[in-house]
Amino acid sequence: MEYIEREKARPAFCLKDYLIQSGGSDPVTLHGAIHRIRDMGHFSFLLVRLPDTIIQCVLEGQAYEKHRPHLHEECCVRLTGVISAEERAPHGLECHIQDMVVLSSPAAPLPFPVNRHKIGPALETELGYRPIALRNSDRRARFRVQAGIVQQFRNFLQTQGFTEIRSPKLQSASAEGGANVFSLDYFGKKAYLAQSPQFYKQMMVGVYERVFEVGSVFRAERHQTARHLNEYVSLDFEMGYIDDFTDLCAMETAMLASVFDYLRQSFAEEIQTLKVSLPSVDRIPSIRFVEAKELVARTYNRKIKDPHDLEPEEERLISDVIKRQTGSDFVFVTHYPASKRPFYAMNDPENPKLTLSFDLLFRGLEITTGGQRIHDYDEQVAKMVDKGLAPEDFKSYLMAHRHGMPPHGGLGIGLERLCMKLFGDSQIRLSSMFPRDMGRLDP
Amino acid sequence: MEYIEREKARPAFCLKDYLIQSGGSDPVTLHGAIHRIRDMGHFSFLLVRLPDTIIQCVLEGQAYEKHRPHLHEECCVRLTGVISAEERAPHGLECHIQDMVVLSSPAAPLPFPVNRHKIGPALETELGYRPIALRNSDRRARFRVQAGIVQQFRNFLQTQGFTEIRSPKLQSASAEGGANVFSLDYFGKKAYLAQSPQFYKQMMVGVYERVFEVGSVFRAERHQTARHLNEYVSLDFEMGYIDDFTDLCAMETAMLASVFDYLRQSFAEEIQTLKVSLPSVDRIPSIRFVEAKELVARTYNRKIKDPHDLEPEEERLISDVIKRQTGSDFVFVTHYPASKRPFYAMNDPENPKLTLSFDLLFRGLEITTGGQRIHDYDEQVAKMVDKGLAPEDFKSYLMAHRHGMPPHGGLGIGLERLCMKLFGDSQIRLSSMFPRDMGRLDP
Description:
The structure is a homodimer of 443-residue chains.
Chain A: E1 2-5, H1 15-22, E2 27-39, E3 44-49, E4 54-59, H2 61-67, E5 76-85, E6 93-104, H3 123-128, H4 130-133, H5 137-159, E7 163-164, E8 170-171, E9 183-186, E10 189-193, H6 198-208, E11 210-218, E12 231-240, H7 246-266, H8 268-274, E13 283-288, H9 289-300, H10 312-326, E14 330-334, E15 347-348, E16 351-355, E17 357-362, E18 365-373, H11 377-386, H12 395-402, E19 408-414, H13 415-422
Parallel strand pairs in A: 4-6, 7-11, 13-14
Antiparallel strand pairs in A: 2-3, 2-5, 3-4, 5-6, 8-10, 9-10, 11-12, 12-19, 14-17, 15-16, 17-18, 18-19
Helix pairs in contact in A: 5-7, 5-8, 6-12, 9-10
């Protein structure tokens, strides 16, 4: 009998670990794609793409004579060399190649270079070539940071006693209702693609008190804007036994602070590549919806057109004023009108036209919607009826209420929106590895 | 301006931390649902459900007189009390209630008790009442362990240099092809729900070398068996620069070992509740497909009906023999016939009728399919044509190959299957919070 040994698993080559462990004097074997070749006459610099960085390698002498004629950018190689200090190279290091094997060669050159800081073609072209465009250092850095955000979102919430859940993406009813939902045939029944894990995370508060989920959600919105995707990643949490909705805001503030601390610590190279300015979030200002509207109307001498909702332009202006007044890149806008919030939002007992809900704006864009939910069965049924909904369509959801739910609330964060504003982009599709919009389903 | 302070976020009450910090002598404030009431005449035991455990509380004296008449199971309460040793209680502890507030009361009693070790009704009934059935301790423990598996899958792979990716679930082509795919209208185009992140994780090997994803996948399979779900969670990884496919097996072995170590360490209570026997996986035996078939035929005096695939019964028997011979709960079955493997599987150079692929069986069930992929563009195009596929239907996928890919491979693990076998169940739906099968789309 043959055996596979646990010990045989090999971690990826990590430049930092190598330097710490060996002091950099031992020969090292590493592998990667040749990101860029710079010919210098009788030798070449090879920039080799490692999982999280790029290392400059020097191909010279016999190895140069042997390999250079057959070498192309995007060849994959394994090489042995000695790393030494070289202040003009990235990380102040370069690797002098002693031996090299070419593992694979591309069948065709790239349609555009990916090894410059900027990618040449326009966004639409880039997206068509996304599998290779993502090899660019800026693009790689974006999704490394995005992975870091998700990782720390989860790790922080785990320290706060949250349990990770997995809700189904195929559902029989939709949380938000309306036309913005994809539907499909499910063995003769009509199924909807999840617009959010809303119902499920609320149900699971009855099970674990505090839950979170990171998952795909789907919106069949027919508008093609710079801040909408038809499939995106939602960071959701829901927590029971809250005193009021500011408990949710505090948890989000602490989570964001922890995420940015983590990025600062663990993604320094990516942060530098992207020239990201990480916001400070030890505290976040909070303003009521009505006051925010009035503040903007007053400051910018604007008329209030829609008293029940914020226009995108108003979100930008609120952020601008708050930034000037407090220095904060974030602002909570609270107490949204009940007419614009879903049936599960708890009304403000002091003014039932308002809800105990909030949005979080980040640099001019709403990245979070949240609030306290109704936990009492009768109150929930009454509000459904009030909103013209049929409680019998929401039997499973109401089951949790019927059999006892604590006061609770939660929120959802659009991952790509958070990234878009963090990266300083004006186009959300840059923050999705393979974005889905009305015109794009491929790659 | 009001502010939300980072410091205001409150971690959940954790019994273990409390005992470590205070030695258990200070009064404690905690909250939870009343899982069970045991009336003892002039006092009551309240079993209170905390996020990760249950604590026995004693309601006596004035608090008993005041609250007992209005108290029901599944009431949510906040209480202050003093924790003291009581060896007959769970954890050897009980909390003597000094003060209590009832935060909410259920509108109706539960349709069946959830506070016994076993849930009364049959599975179909339970699934219909899943939002409340999950409040049962056995059910809570299952999905805490499941969350722990996913967490350590990610954490372990991160230590090995893997980057987390997010592939789209709405796709224009399907990886496995065939009829087992859900389709829907996507703004006038036909979209498919992801059967796997296969194409995307391969593309991303060209970007980050090693990637993983935990995500929902969808199979429109028309058979209703004890080991199939129509929506499930796939744990995928893909790694570049492998020497051969046993590198993948070694990484999986090390990952599983790390996951079970973590469960042993961090989920002792859940492991005990579920009476789970955690397998030892320092090494996993490996056997070729042909030899496995012959071994079973010989040992059990069976005829080989289908020489190209394993029947479920054969998977069980292989596991049984290997368990007897080696003591291992796992076995890799390698070198599957090319006729039953997809177009991206690399053929065995020593016998092109076989592939450099494998399944991992766990206690009689296939929980993983993996293998080395073709990385050469021409070889991939040729195999597509050989399999009767049109390369122009896979343009985005082939783009990665065309512009250079390292030797690579990967695998996918069915999370619910792994859990099912770990928990000793004969029915996979117990391992999905809200399972989806041909007849069930709700809750």
